[in-house]
Amino acid sequence: MTAPVQPNSFKTGPDERGYFGIYGGRFVAETLMPLILELQQAYEDAKADPAFKAELQALSTHYAGRPSKLYFAEGLTKHLGGARIFFKREDLNHTGSHKINNCLGQILLAKRMGKTRIIAETGAGQHGVASATVAARFGLPCFVYMGATDVERQAPNVFRMKLLGATVNPVTAGNGTLKDAMNEALRDWVSNVEDTYYLIGTAAGPHPYPELVRDFQSVIGTEARAQMLEQEGRLPDMIIAAVGGGSNAIGLFHPFLDDRDVEIVGVEAGGHGVDIENGHAASMTGGRPGVLHGNRTYLLQDADGQILEGHSVSAGLDYPGVGPEHSWLRDTGRVQYVPIVDQEALDAFQVCTRVEGIIPALESAHAIAQAIKVAPTMAKDKTIIVNLSGRGDKDVHTVGKLLGMDI
Amino acid sequence: MTETRIDRRFASLKSEGRPALVTFMTAGDPDPDTTLALLKALPGAGADVIELGMPFSDPMADGPAIQAAGLRALKGGQTLQKTLDLVRTFRQSDDATPIVLMGYYNPIYSFGSEAFVAAAKAAGVDGLIIVDLPPEADDELCLPALEAGLNFIRLATPTTDDKRLPAVLANTSGFVYYVSINGITGSAAPDASRVAESVARIKRHTHLPVSVGFGVRTAEQAAAIGANADGVVVGSAIVSAVAASLDSEGRATPATVPAVLALVSDLAGGVRAARKSVAA
């Protein structure tokens, strides 16, 4: 694949048809096409409305707890003996991850559009919990599609969603993971077009979802950039985030894209290893471009174009695609995407817990693992921001099982 | 564009004064030999146009019956190339019955749009229905397909309003596939009188034949819908008949082909009674 032309700015996409280079677009059934055009218009209107911005700002501050802290991870820095590591503490947000940023923005959009029913897909359950939370806050019924496999491995989040009043629909199609949940959510949307708002949790799907999810998540990078300048007087040398669908990563990365001296690294789920077909979820390392869930992007697929399930120890990264903007950033070379395998993530999970006193989500542990790899090779005056996208309480059962403990 | 088998078939049925029976089945469900046997026998049982599903791992617009049919076919090793091979073999004995390939874009994108269009034309395919390619993406496959002389059949839905219809119809050829409900394949039966209004609405925008599908299962429904449409599409009911005939391992049995043909004969009776029931 030839590399696309280097743009003057990496922050201007998508174009009016929803493309980042060749990626993105609107590959949906005709039934949904009028709906996503309506959503696009509603989002344009909302962006131009100061009242929308003010309401989102107030909720972010008082409900979600923003701004999240930029924390100097002294324990991990000393342990590694290289570059200084900072955590962007999205784990401290209400509901325990970055997912609330997007959900607050989208629930306000749904309200503006007069929609009365919320549907969402979820993998790890973090987005399902965040969706159920904002639906409860605004008094809207919420239906969450979750792969049956994920329902089993993320039982605490399933219970939280139910407590919040959401209906959790286990999806048994396919392997019962995130992609199957997304298929089922799309089927629900096609069947309930009048009253239903589809609250997509990641920066993927048909235009305008990749753009609007990115915009709502960019608060992460905007804050982190200002905090780093305030605390250290300069920009970081490197920023790192885990990439499944890629919403926490694009949220951190986007405000830094035109800071050419900042090295940007996205961490994909290497699972059992990227050489093992269907043994990982690293779509940009081990996949090729294709069309799924409304957009063109890198996908894990077989020779016939059938989508593979992928594998990761982390349910939130277990998705065979990735947001289209990441695919474009990969091809342009602006962002480097690297795989971290299950074992490295599990090791990082434990190291972080022991030396920093923070239990990270298994998703975030992939980003930490990359920092553990590179920090010792960097000078002590260099700085790295790692996006601590979520807390790990939800993962203790999974990790316990893998460590041979019965919790 | 030159006249295709689809154009000729709808023209001749118009002179007969009855709607077309358009049957759908998934290629390779549960194996290619069964599909080939069905392809060869369907015209005799009364199918006027055959839609052949190209199985895909993630059929977002399909209900449980067609999802399951696709999984059975993929499990049996069906590929896009094998689907094209089935059409080529069928064409050796039938040069009249139109074949429409229906499915999702990714396997075609993976094959290569230009290469696929050429291979489909060479195999004897007449038209394409690609669920996840709206007119906004016409440059991907629709335009190359039209260029090669294949019909590109578009879905119009209840959400396609009068403002949007012209864009949907612009590059559509062969026929228009009206999706009678907002929903997935195999959902509840559509209301015949509402469908009649919708077909009339579409016909104000186009001279193309309009076929109606999603939710049609019985001869009675086919007759009611066909009274006001140029074609009636039946899919989930047919693949459900395939499913019901399989053994416990999911393999075809001697009952498979007869079961499907019995259903299709019955449906064919429905479309043949469609206009008579109106006249009566």
How would you summarize this macromolecular structure in one to three sentences?
Chain A has helices at residues 33-47, 50-64, 74-80, 99-112, 126-138, 148-153, 155-163, 178-191, 209-217, 219-232, 247-253, 283-286, 324-332, 342-356, 362-374, 396-402; strands at residues 19-20, 23-27, 70-72, 84-89, 117-122, 142-147, 167-171, 196-198, 238-243, 263-271, 288-292, 294-299, 335-341, 383-388.
Tag the structure with descriptive keywords:
heterodimer, A: 407 residues, alpha/beta, six-stranded mixed beta sheet, four-stranded antiparallel beta sheet, 14 strands, 18% strand, B: 280 residues, TIM Barrel, 12 helices
Could you explain the architecture of this structure?
Chain A has helices at residues 33-47, 50-64, 74-80, 99-112, 126-138, 148-153, 155-163, 178-191, 209-217, 219-232, 247-253, 283-286, 324-332, 342-356, 362-374, 396-402; strands at residues 19-20, 23-27, 70-72, 84-89, 117-122, 142-147, 167-171, 196-198, 238-243, 263-271, 288-292, 294-299, 335-341, 383-388. Chain A has 407 residues and is an alpha/beta fold. In chain A, a hairpin with a 2-residue loop joins β1 and β2 (23-27). In chain A, α2 (50-64) crosses α4 (99-112), α4 runs parallel beside α5 and α5 packs parallel to α7 (155-163). Chain B has 280 residues and is of the alpha/beta class. Chain B has one domain: Aldolase class I (TIM Barrel, Alpha-Beta Barrel), CATH 3.20.20.70. Chain B has helices at residues 5-16, 32-45, 64-75, 80-91, 105-111, 113-123, 142-147, 165-170, 192-203, 219-226, 236-245, 256-279; strands spanning 20-26, 49-53, 99-103, 127-130, 151-152, 155-156, 176-179, 210-213, 231-234. A 9-stranded parallel β-sheet of chain B has the order 5-4-3-2-1-9-8-7-6. In chain B, α2 (32-45) packs parallel to α12 (256-279). The N and C termini of chain B lie far apart (39 Å). Chain A binds chain B through residues 17, 25-35, 173-174, 179-180, 183, 186-187, 190-194, 290-294, 296, 299, 301, 303-307, and chain B through 56-61, 63, 67, 74, 79-81, 104-111, 131-134, 136-137, 154-161, 164, 168, 179, 182-184, 187.
